């Protein structure tokens, strides 16, 4: 499955959230990660993130589609990575 | 088409970017909008945003799929809006 993850967490929790996301996904914009994961990897990522955030303050949102071919990506302005090093 | 839009713009340009995004999409997280648009609406949105950002500093990223049924959404922590008022 292809996962897009956007995090909005307090500054003091960002390092742990970023480290966790980087284990599983590629960083594509300041607050955005994306990548292909198995269902098991996705569950492991979400479980790790659940333990890293304050659910009353932070927010992590994911959008999941079956395969990356179903998604078109567009960037205006600064692009942190081309499609080559993302997918 | 179903559009997910993430903006990362300088504070002084945020009001114009937000106003433009709100015309077309629903706000779902601090820096995330989503919604269903026609191809013409999508082009109009991107053209308006192109004129509102500094392409050397700001970044706007979109992910597009053919229909919202192809996407599953998940939130950890704070959720700004349920599926009911998003799609």
TrEMBL record, chains A, B:
UniProt cross-references to Pfam families, sorted A to Z: CRISPR_Cas2 (PF09827)
CDD domains: Cas2_I_II_III
Superkingdom of origin: Bacteria
Cofactor: Mg(2+)
Residues spanning the signal sequence: none
Keywords tagged on the record: Antiviral defense, Endonuclease, Hydrolase, Magnesium, Metal-binding, Nuclease
Residue ranges of the TM segments: none
Enzymatic class: hydrolase
Family stated for the protein in its record: Belongs to the CRISPR-associated endoribonuclease Cas2 protein family.
Function: CRISPR (clustered regularly interspaced short palindromic repeat), is an adaptive immune system that provides protection against mobile genetic elements (viruses, transposable elements and conjugative plasmids). CRISPR clusters contain sequences complementary to antecedent mobile elements and target invading nucleic acids. CRISPR clusters are transcribed and processed into CRISPR RNA (crRNA). Functions as a ssRNA-specific endoribonuclease. Involved in the integration of spacer DNA into the CRISPR cassette.
Subunit details: Homodimer, forms a heterotetramer with a Cas1 homodimer.
Protein name: CRISPR-associated endoribonuclease Cas2
């Amino acid at each position: 499955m292809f996962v897009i993850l956007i995090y909005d967490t307090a500054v003091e929790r960002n390092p742990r959230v970023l480290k966790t996301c980087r284990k599983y996904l590629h960083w594509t914009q300041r607050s955005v990660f994306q990548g292909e994961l198995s269902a098991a990897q996705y569950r492991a990522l979400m479980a790790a993130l659940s333990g890293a955030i304050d659910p009353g303050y932070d927010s992590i949102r994911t959008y999941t589609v079956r395969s990356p071919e179903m998604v078109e990506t567009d960037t205006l302005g600064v692009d942190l990575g081309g499609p080559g090093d993302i997918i």
